[in-house]
């Protein structure tokens, strides 16, 4: 790869790790585009990068202020991300050959085990949203929970719990959803009547405590052949 002909886009390039990555890329001869919203850092970090690499290499560095509320449109060329539109009102397109993404606005911790999976995250903002989710069980019986807490409003924005049972020809699921709109209890049943014809019947029942309304959905499908399936 001829580094002098390549442009690297670095999102979150003003942060601690981002600036050191930018310095390394510039020293190796790459052109660098930085995108950062400066929520947690200051523009002086870019000036510090220029001081470290010198005036000649600084000519290959471009900084772009990107606000989270701004629409970010990306295009793809042969399955490779090649351009990003920062301000579609000005039609300002930036071209690059590769992207290094440091612009994550949360810290996430995951633990995976044969019979358990746990994930927790917290947003890197003044009033973060804290999320915790976990699944315990086997491929037959599993219990899961998903909770989100908004520190700004000091309310739980999401609290979902579910229990599922699966065997060779059926899947049964019971869930409790609690959010800002109310409480929902949902249960579903998915049964394979005939695997050879892919004949399946499914039922879902939902009850809302907030509106005191029950919703029942029943569906069935049957394959006439490999290319034709009837659903109702």
UniProtKB/TrEMBL annotation:
Top-level taxon in the UniProt lineage: Eukaryota
Cellular-component GO terms for this entry: mitochondrial outer membrane
Gene Ontology molecular function: voltage-gated monoatomic anion channel activity
Family listed: Belongs to the eukaryotic mitochondrial porin (TC 1.B.8.1) family.
Xref: PANTHER family: MITOCHONDRIAL OUTER MEMBRANE PROTEIN PORIN 1 (PTHR11743:SF60), VOLTAGE-DEPENDENT ANION-SELECTIVE CHANNEL (PTHR11743)
Protein name (record): NAD(P)-binding domain-containing protein
Source organism of the structure: Gossypium stocksii
């Amino acid at each position: 790869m001829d580094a002098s002909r390549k442009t690297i886009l670095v999102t979150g390039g003003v942060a601690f790790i981002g600036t050191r990555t930018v310095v390394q890329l510039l020293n190796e001869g790459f052109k660098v585009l930085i995108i950062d919203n400066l929520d947690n850092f200051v523009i002086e970090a870019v000036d510090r990068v220029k001081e470290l690499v010198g005036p000649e290499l600084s000519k290959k560095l471009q900084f772009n202020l990107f606000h989270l509320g701004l629409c970010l449109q990306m295009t793809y060329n042969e399955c490779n991300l090649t351009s990003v539109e920062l301000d579609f009102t000005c039609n300002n397109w930036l071209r690059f050959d590769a992207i290094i993404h440091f612009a994550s606005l949360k810290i996430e911790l995951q633990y995976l085990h044969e019979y358990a999976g746990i994930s927790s995250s917290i947003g890197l903002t003044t009033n973060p949203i804290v999320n915790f989710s976990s699944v315990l069980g086997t491929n037959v019986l599993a219990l899961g929970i998903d909770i989100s807490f908004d520190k700004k409003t000091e309310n739980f924005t999401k609290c979902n719990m579910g229990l599922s049972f699966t065997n060779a020809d059926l899947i049964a699921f019971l869930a409790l959803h609690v959010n800002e709109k109310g409480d929902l209890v949902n249960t579903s049943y998915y049964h394979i009547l005939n695997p050879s014809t892919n004949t399946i019947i499914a039922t879902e029942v939902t009850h809302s405590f907030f509106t005191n309304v029950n919703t029942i959905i029943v569906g069935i499908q049957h394959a006439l052949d490999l290319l034709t399936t009837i659903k109702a």
